[in-house]
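This part of the workshop introduces the protein records we will be handling. Getting from the letters to the tokens is the skill we practise here. The record below serves as our worked example for the rest of this section.

…
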Amino acid sequence: MSLTPPPGLPSSHTSAGARHRIIELDHVHRMARALTSDHQCQPAEGQSADGALIGNMQLQEVQPGLFMRLNRIRKRADLMIRSRIEPSLKIAVVWRGEPRVSFGPQHHALKPGRALCIALDEPTEFRLQSPKGAYEHSAILTLTPAWLTWHLGVSSASEVMPEARHLAHYHWQPSTRLVERLEEFSRQRPGTLALRLGIESVALEVISECLAARPAQADDSAQRSLQDTSEWKARLEDWISSGEVAYLSQAEIAARLGMSVRQLQRRYRDAYGQTMARDLRRRQLLRAAHLLQDRNVTVEAAAEMAGYRSAANFATAFRRQFGVPPSQRPVVTV
């Protein structure tokens, strides 16, 4: 888990409550270089670059290959931004302002209630024009090919789209709860572990809602497979049997399966007859009990493999589930 700014960036470009902090354009360049090349950010002729941006701006690599930039800014000059973006899946959510952007020959007007998901399968010219006085409160996610391969099992961004082609895109409406969470984190400095984990959580929630909103298409095999109960169950069972599920949040599982968290919870309950959280906890404890039959496996190791950070909490849950402490290494058959 990364949860750190890319190399070359300061730990944060914001400070809590610093609503009118000047953002130096040099910081913008350094931030952009983590994901783009040939980046330019220039004020219109005759306007000063000093104090051209005020507010908060931060970029975090919340997981290896998954980046989220939170913008809470106002422009005090007419700005033209140009860059060359590397292949990736881009997700943009705006809740204040209406920035106009271009990816290659395509032009998009971003605005509240109308998020964008676009697939870039090759390096793409990007442009953004921002008039003086404009606000932009937004979250921009970059899902690199490495992240897409590891988490979604695809090698290019277009493979998750209804139409598999470069620059394929669709718009979707983020939930009120998601926008409120993004707004909350855009105001804060991610200096503590709890806040950085929160940013990771909300980034995964963005991905989950975005993928769940994909338009259906008859020849979209990825979409069909997610509607196929046996397919998503088989993938989830693999993660359970390997123990990987112990290290995944529900938002992360949902994102991997291309569903929203609510869809996943509802389908799990329909398929297994129990709530997802309770049943996964039971199954992880059952796996831990089986592991403890090997005397070389310590209680602490079994706790970790069951997803518990505290051996004491693990022991309490284990006793509640099986009636004896894990130190007794009971033979559990169900």
